[in-house]
Amino acid sequence: MALSVFLVLVLAVFLGFFIQTVVGFAGALVALPILLIVMNLQDAIAYLALFYLYSSAILVAKEWKNIDKPVLLKLTIATVIGVTLGIWILQYGKPLVLKKMLGAFILLYVIYTIFFVKATNEKKTRFSFVFGLAGGFFSGLFSTGGPLYVMVVKNTVVDMRTFRATMIGVLGLITITRVPILYAQNILTHNHFYNSLFIVPSFLLATFLGKSLYSKLNEDVLKNIVLGLLFISGMVLLIKN
To answer: Which of the four, 17, 23, 102, 122, has the lowest number of CB atoms within 10 Å?
Structure first.
């Protein structure tokens, strides 16, 4: 691996998984645009899948008691189907239009949440299967399906601690579905795994610092961070080729 590629990979993993640890999602939304500077989409997805595997092994174990298990179970079937379809498109398709559509959809959701959603505790779960399917699809395709799961989990769980933990559980579910399929399709290789081992110190530092910051933030700040990340990710997906 060239030194320039290595340094960009270190930076992307650190920034992505620092954010991932703080809010429970959005690691790929931060890391993917950086990785695409020096590598193709398939290699970027392979590395992200490995670090999501490492992240899930740490965070799911720590947050298991706070995860909303019924929400996670409800999303399982849709996620497995969606991830499988997304990886198939990743290998055989040219999904740029879908990427821009996802970006536009995220931006519309942020606008809707800020300006039109009333302060209510109504649990909006009617479309959880559809959002789970779409989230799994874009997770398999770009590792960027997190915002679609946010739309389900955010309107179902009561507090931000449960939201964050459930998002961590959802991404763990995506990971254990995605990694074997990527490997079977020869998108994820032994070389990716070998190279990833040299980036683990950066990943562990990001996880430690993210956990430290999370403990100091209140719920309102976390909610604003979630909406801010959704807006930024939507803009990046919409304008990035």
So the answer is: 122
pLDDT tens for 150-179 read: 777 877 776 878 888 888 898 889 889 989
Site of tokens 């799961």: 149
- Evaluate whether 234 touches 44 at the Cβ level (below 8 Å): no
Are 155 and 121 in contact, with CB atoms under 8 Å apart? no
CA atoms within 13 A on the CB side of 226: 27
Amino acid in position 1: M
Other beta carbons less than 10 A from residue 194's beta carbon: 10
Tens digits of per-residue pLDDT, 127-147?
678 888 888 888 887 777 777
- Distance between CA atoms of residues 17 and 209, nearest Å: 10
Domain ranges for the chain, please list them: 3-239
Predicted confidence at residue 202, as pLDDT, reads: 94
